[in-house]
Amino acid sequence: MRLGVAGPVGTGKSSLIATLCRALSGELRLGVITNDIYTDEDARFLKSAGVLEPERIRPVETGACPHTAIRDDVTANLLAAEDLEADFGSLDLVIIESGGDNLTATFSPALVDAQLFVLDVAGGGDVVRKGGPGIARADLLVINKTDLGPHVGVDVERMAREGREARRGGSVVALSQHDEASIRMLTGWVRDTLARYRTGDHTPVDPGPMAPHSHTGRDGEGGHPHTHADSAHDQAPAHAGPSA
Amino acid sequence: MDTTSSLLLALLGDARLPSGGHTQSAGLEPALRAGTSSAQVPPYLRVRLRTVTRVEAGAAVVARAVAADGGDLAEVEAAWAARTPSQALRANGRRLGRGYLRVLQTLWPGPVDTSARTWSRPVVLGLLAHRAGMNAVDLARLVGYDDVQTVTAALLKLEPQDPLLIAAWVKDLLPDIDEMAAQVAHLHTTEQIPAQGAPLIERWAETHDTITERLFSA
């Protein structure tokens, strides 16, 4: 299974991947691909963390196009995943880290089977309310660095609750590297998703490029909230007109 | 086939073709780092068209001819490698070849040699042109045009400026691309593949391969 890790820069994607490697490398055959924007810093961080053999961690250059590399032309990442499999045989889990960018970057289902989106409390409690495809519809939302909550004036429980509301009940993990129970929740989610992937009960989903929104028809009706990831959207007669 | 659909050339020359092209600067990133100014980019492109890009286009044209005759493309690959002294450029060319192999096997599926995964871009493009019915001169044009557009698109990322000025450079270089294509389009055998080198471009590629701070693979 290929697992994407997206989220804004500085929210702790690399540390989260290091944590996953530390917890899972004993039971799963792992590989990691990093998409750095300017340097191979993330790959070097993970190699120096000593959580995985350095040969199992591959950087991919994105030509200043971190969105493209994980969404519309995933070639470089697919080749890196192929290389990992060619060098180490079949792997249980390949974790692909996006170049830390902004709230809009999510992975194509052509590249990853599941994806998690990482925010941190230090970015502000209101970020979940800003929404976006990753926050609303990634397979998992991680609210990271919860131990910093009291220091940055963020009510972590409220932020997690608003995350669940934005996701209409979808999975949220409030994570701290200093809280073993939260790490177990994260690794439990990964194990569970991998198990469902293996039995064919998990379907890769594109979180979509846009946040939920509505079209208002010329008669002022029919403005129901939806996303363009909804397959019903394209078939809905209400949208046969020039609303797009 | 004597004529290539102009739409086929447009499809394959389009930066939106998902073959991994956005990871490339065709040597521009290390060239700028080594002190090349953006005003020197048009002469840089002319030098490429007369050297490394000509080798690339010649190898592609010969690969097309060899594929059409049912010959051994591994020989073309070896001839291209012998004319590409930089290890970094050979590795990058083969990475690009794998990207185009995905394009080939999805858009024009068919049996390929098991070693095709190790072939460089010109060899895969030659096979693709044979399968897709693209003629030799258009194949060489494609290689030249792609190189020019790769450099200019990367320039707009590395040193942004009026993008229409850069598009005008590309337009002014179209006759140079045609001239290069006309020089290699008739080639048929591996020994005919041009062997011009560009030692600075090759040295910059080697340096670029070792640094940790870069936007583009090569």
TrEMBL record, chain A:
Keywords: Chaperone, GTP-binding, Nickel insertion, Nucleotide-binding. It comes from the Bacteria. The keyword Nucleotide-binding applies. This is Urease accessory protein UreG. GO terms for biological process: urea catabolic process. The keyword Repeat does not apply. Residues 200-244 are annotated as: Disordered. The gene is ureG. Residues 216-233 have a biased composition (Basic and acidic residues). GO terms for molecular function: GTP binding; GTPase activity; nickel cation binding. It comes from Streptomyces chumphonensis. Residues 4-171 form the CobW/HypB/UreG nucleotide-binding domain. Pfam families: cobW. Belongs to the SIMIBI class G3E GTPase family. UreG subfamily.
